[in-house]
Amino acid sequence: MPCAACATAAPAARPARPARVLAAVLAAGTLLATAACSGGDGGSTAAADRAAAVAERPARQTVTPSPTRTLDEAGARAALITEADLEDDWTQVDNADTWQDSLLIGQVDAAAFLTGKTDAADCQRLLDGLYDENLLGEPSGTSALTGFQEGESRLLYQVAAYEQADLDKSMDWLKSLPEKCDQFTVTGGDSGERTVQVVEASLPDAGDARQGLTVTVKGTAEGNPVTLTLDVAAVRVGTDAIAVTNGGLDGADHDSTETAVQSGVQRLEEVQAGRTPSPDATGTPSPDATGTPSPDATGTPSPGGTRTPSPGATG
């Protein structure tokens, strides 16, 4: 009877379409399930391979920066450049700390030539800073300086510790001078009226911040026209800084300024890291980070004075 019922319920002439569709759907589902299982196995294998590769990698090392030490008297002396750092024919002098009182270049007292008055406060500060040898302001910590002579040119090199905020302000002020003090007039003193020009000068990419200037002062001395040209360079290294003034009546040797900056920053960074700067080109050991400048052949300490901060100086 079941077969008869089936024959009665479904006419023989009508095709069984739903059965074909259902079969197709079931077949597709089977293929998808098979593919999914296959993909899952491959994904698990790939994930396991990646995990194994990561596990085999060496652990990344954490680099700890060298500590920066507070610049003390011995360190300041050790950070001073030497004749060998400058090369050429520069000769280190032992009286650079007196240059602000009288700096004779030829027959001209360059220190007096820089003194005078101008209306612009920033330009006056520049003149005073060149004369007083404190372009970056009064140091908050120890400082040291040394000087070199080559013909009619003089190079003064200083290193000192400052308060960070004050040092940043001084660096910003120096950067503003080529615009604020492009050209100005100075009066007073024995040299009469002088014209001063300030332009920006390039420096090596050294230290944390840097600014270079070329200052040209034109006037008369002893009735003769005189032009004094000075390179000015300042570089911040942490909370310490180096300052260089270099030039004379024959112009400024900019290569020597750049060399002083490059060598000086390297020496200062060595001192800050607690290391002794490398020996100079002559083979004479540089001053160590614990004490006294290296003696010369006569047993006399090498030139280079150390300054202490003025009472109450804040930087």
List the main descriptive attributes of the protein structure presented here:
single chain; 315 residues; alpha+beta; Protein Transport Mog1p, Chain A; 8 helices; 35% helix; 24% strand; globular; disordered C terminus
What does this structure look like?
- The chain is 35% helix and 24% strand.
- The chain folds into two domains: 13-56; 73-307, 3-Layer(aba) Sandwich (Protein Transport Mog1p, Chain A).
- The chain has helices spanning 2-9, 17-56, 73-78, 83-86, 110-114, 121-132, 164-180, 254-272; strands spanning 91-93, 104-105, 108-109, 143-150, 153-161, 183-186, 194-201, 209-221, 224-237, 240-248, 305-307.
- The strands form two sheets. Strands 1, 4, 5, 6, 7, 8, 9, 10 and 11 form a nine-stranded antiparallel β-sheet that branches.
Gist of the model:
With 315 residues, the chain is α+β, with helices and mostly antiparallel strands.
Q: Structural class given helices, strands, pairing?
A: alpha+beta
Under CATH, the topology of the largest domain can be stated as Protein Transport Mog1p, Chain A
Note the total helix count: 8
Second rung of CATH, namely the architecture of the largest domain = 3-Layer(aba) Sandwich
Mean pLDDT: 75
**Approximate strand percentage:** 15-25%
- Report the count of strand segments: 11
The major beta sheet can be summarized as: 9 strands, antiparallel
Q: Report the span from N to C terminus.
A: 114 Å
Q: Work out the helicity level.
A: 25-40%
Shape: globular
Total domain units: 2
In sequence order, what are the helices and strands, one letter per element?
HHHHEEEHHEEHEEEEEHE
Q: Given this structure, which CATH class of the largest domain is correct?
A: Alpha Beta
How large is the radius of gyration?
A: 38 Å
List segments where confidence is low: pLDDT < 50 over at least 5 consecutive residues.
1-40, 57-67, 281-303, 307-315
